[in-house]
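Entry 12.
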Amino acid sequence: MRVFSLFLCVLLLISIQARATTITELLNALKNQPQTKADEFFLKSAKAGYSKTTSLFWPKIYATSSYTHYNSPTSLRPLLPTESSELIRLNKAIPFSKNISQIGINVSMPVFVYPLFSLTKKAQALTKAAKTKKKLNFIRNEAAVVLLNAQLEYVKNLKEAIKGRINSLKAQLNTIKKAVELGRAAPIDALKIEDNLNKLNIQLNKLNSSEYSIIMSIYSLTGIKLKEPAQMELARQVREKELFQLKPLIYNLQASKYELKAKESELFPSIYMKGFIARKFAKSYNTNEHIVKNYGSIGIYLQIPIFNKVIYADIEKAKSDYMKSQYKLREYKRQLISQSKSIKEELKILNRSMILARKNIKNAKELLEYAKVAFRLKRMTEEEYLRYEDALLSAKAELFELKLKKWQDISKLAIIYGNDLKEIVR
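Predicted 3D structure (tokens):
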């Protein structure tokens, strides 16, 4: 029974290892990568900034405690002249002392501070910018994985095409060697085939190196080391809603606008409420008796800026930053519109080209079969035959390259319009 259970476990492990990784698994693996985690903390930081700004509207309350020594007796609290005269007349403790201790509470809060409203809106815009940037970065990483997987598929298909050509040439080489042994062909014919085989093997080695590099790039993004490219096909077209790639810049422009408003509103009057309550302890200077007095106040304060050169400099800087962001957004928008139109037109051309490329492969295969027969019957030179071999490989490589370019364009459009590639690719 134990042997049977162990056998089942081994089979299960083999089946898990043999199962190919899907493109969905690769895209889902991005959630646990450092870049995604960093974007999450960037968003949390932006939210904390918004929370910090809104908290400026709340009162600030501090508990205080102090001990102060004076070089002459000082009042614990202000006294009325009549109260002071009465205490002296009755020889009672006067609330004056050189050493005074106190505990108390200080309270302050803004009643009307106009810049705070603009700063709150700025923080809100920055939070939205961080949120959209997080999503945009994730889509960019998805696009990178899709494109790398397409490159891996391109390399694999090209390798298989080259191996097919190598096998075809090897078969011809064996035939030529037999003909050379019988004196029906010149030895140079075999050398020409061998030269082509060597070139193909060198090309194959380069592709092996590229394949490893692509696999490691996918591993660095997803933490998954592929043995084979993940199968993928187009589930739906990219939905063209808004230029999502612009949204972080739009929100940053809004933040610059509110920053400018906040700096300008620093020239407006501000109203604050301040208050305190304190309990003071000391020894009277005239009777040396312990005295305790309570003292407090609350008030509304109006603050009007008359002249502060720094504010004007800050306004000019904020205005420059706002205008710079505005022009940058306009320029980037034009670029994205132009790029999206170009990509969509290119996709139409690619689809037509892929149809033609498939026909070229079919024709190249038929022509190669004819060339093989003609070469064996000495109706075609070796150079002409090799050109047909090259033509088939070139036709296949062209189709593989068109497929790669199509995935590249789809990935670019997904980034521009903010489409989740998990919904586009399956």
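Annotation: The first strand starts at residue 60 and ends at 75. The CA atoms of residues 151 and 248 lie 30 Å apart.
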